[in-house]
Here is the input.
Amino acid sequence: MTLNQIFQLKVITINGVCHFELSWGVGKTIPAQLDYPTSLTASYTDWQQAYLNYYENLKLRGEVLKRGKIKAPPQDWAKSLGEAEHRFLLDFHRWLRNEQLCDIRDVIVDAAGDIPNSGSHWVDIFLTCDTPELAHLPWEAWQINTTKLSSPGTRNIRVARVPNKIRNSTVSPIRRKARVLAILGDEKGLDFQEDKQALRSFSKVAEIEFIGWQPKKDITQLKEEIVEKISDRRGWDILFFAGHSNETAYTGGELRIAPNVSITINDIAQPLQQARDRGLQFAIFNSCSGISIAESLINLGLPQVAVMREPIHNQVAQEFLVQFLNSLSEYKDVHEALLDACAFLKEKKNLTYPSTYLIPSLFRHPQSELFRLEPVKNKRIFKHFLPTKREVFLISIVLILSLLPPVQDRFLDIRLWIQTVYRQITHQYPYQSKTPVLLVEIDENSRRESLNELKDIRPINYRYLARIVDKLSTLETKVIGIDYLLDNRQQSDNSRELSKSIRNAVQKGTWFIFAADEYSTPTSGVSNEIANLNWSMQGDIHSLNSHIELLPANAECYQACPFTYLLALTHALHFGKFDNLPKPQLTNKTDLRNQLVEYLNGKNINNSKAAYLHKLRLHPISNSFQWFHPIIDFSLPPKTIYKSISASDLLKGENPPNIEKQVVLIIPGGYAEAGVDKEGEDNLPTPLAIGLWGQWSEGFTGGKLNAYMVHHLLTQQRLVVPIPDFFTVLLAVVLGKLTTLLIKNNNHRQQSWFLGIVIAVYIFVSLQIYISFMVLVPIVLPLGVFGIMCAWRWEEVISSVRQGKNTVKLHRLQ
Here is the structure.
């Protein structure tokens, strides 16, 4: 079922003036008034007369309307009808193109322009006319979009007719293979062979039953059979009638079921209502003059009825039916199928059967869902894949869990532990003699060595930081990140000393990146008393503890920039030897970080690490979920990620090798008070994978987390991207059902071996894909769901094993 834009349009005539009212949505209406031109009535009458003259000597499925004496046909009937049709449609379109209807037309066309071009999307106009003169006009041919012909989607406007009075509600379709009751009426002067053949071809997608008059058949018996068939307890989806029909003023229209014998819609109203209650969705009357028939049936509550508003040539009716059923067999709805059939008459058969494309109309109950066939065979195939109620309940719980971040973090921790075990077994981890990150840790040993300065360590003593900066400066360190929030202004003397040290280092070409809380209001970052952002930079230290902090999609570093991302980018730029690269200079007058962004946006730095980092962004979906958000690869041993040194050892003269090429991070070293908002928050729970590398006793801090992120950004060509558990769980549902079908006929031993092999292969492939392609495929939840889907098979296997054991015991006792 498609979601379409629906409008209701009522046209009422009062004293020669047509009152239009378009309504849609909740209480939205547009009224308009327009004189009904007498010339339109005259042109319609002329066209109808020419139409009847053209088809006068052909087989019509109804009585010729007696609107005056039929004139002798002109020598060129087709030319006469073509001219009359042209004049009639010209008057019709000129009338509806009047400026009084401009607002109505524009609203409809704008709605059509907003709907998608792909798929089956429509603007549906439910048209109600209060007089027969209006009802006989070809509203389906209304050129609503004449002023906006170039607007995309404006061709997807269709008109369905709604009776002025509806007393009964409609019913929803019953999902089953469609059942069609075909009533063949009086065949005098007609030939139903083509109708029968078209319906028999339709039997590939629907069950067809025929009923109709046969020579020497008792009329009373025929009527009883028709009533009985219509009200069949099994129900019908489609009612089809072929033969002569006509409009009537008070009985809802009449159907000729045998020579000189007719029944009215009122005669069969009760069985029709019973058929409606049993699922009847659609009626098609491939006969003449069916407006009153359609209105009566919609009034009875039928969802949709297709009729011919004028007399119709027998062969045209048959060609229309073939095209209509072909489209219906393609699982299009009945309105689309009717439009396809009309388009065929207009584009392919208009020279042979002129004007006939204007005759068909669809009447529709405003509460109905358009009927279409269901691909029953496909449904039967997929029925095997539908989970049971118990499975739906369990799978729903798993899917909900897959969307909860705390639960996902726990499963990710387990998954990386499994990956670490696999790395250790297979020795598939990189060995690096030189790590890209050096951690200078202000740890408990540093506190003991500098008790006077670090006795009160929260906030950190700026004088002590100044000593570290001076030492790093003498070692010609080029990129320094300070993982402390230096916004405290209560250390005036110490702040001036730290500022002096930083300035001296900047004069030697050192880049400083400070920690900041850039999402707070106001931004909390490095104090101006310590450093100026014209010659230093700051980055946001918010972290998810398991995912790498990156810029969102389509974002730049102007307003906020992740701390570790900025460290890696700065290192890549400084050691990339780029021309005219902005440098940290005390004389800078503009924000240094903004200078770098503008430099990167305007400079061609392709095929470099800096270019990779500059373009690196989160997947757009990561704004709502953690899906496809690159993770921190804790399966890599810490010794390949960073080297660390105690701040006290550094100050005592220990010189780490290769320091001038590393990103140096000054971090809290695990002391209990470390944290920005509260004490201890910088001391994180040790990931299972890190513990497996023998790091339980050392603990895990926010600084080490940052070191992992900087390492991944600087050394890996691509980051590890996780496939969301949600998707793999859904895939496990399908594969679980498919597996149960594949092993259904196997014995229990074969089943157990097959399931064991499937699980083992999945685990191995998932672990190796992680290493080879940097893609994390979930293991725990998908295998859990796979087990749920195969649970009944496991129960049979276990039961079989137990039975086997009992048999062995019994044999031994005997």
Summary: Residues 64-74, 148-154, 793-814 have pLDDT under 50 and may be disordered. The two ends are 67 Å apart (CA to CA). The longest helix spans residues 748-773.
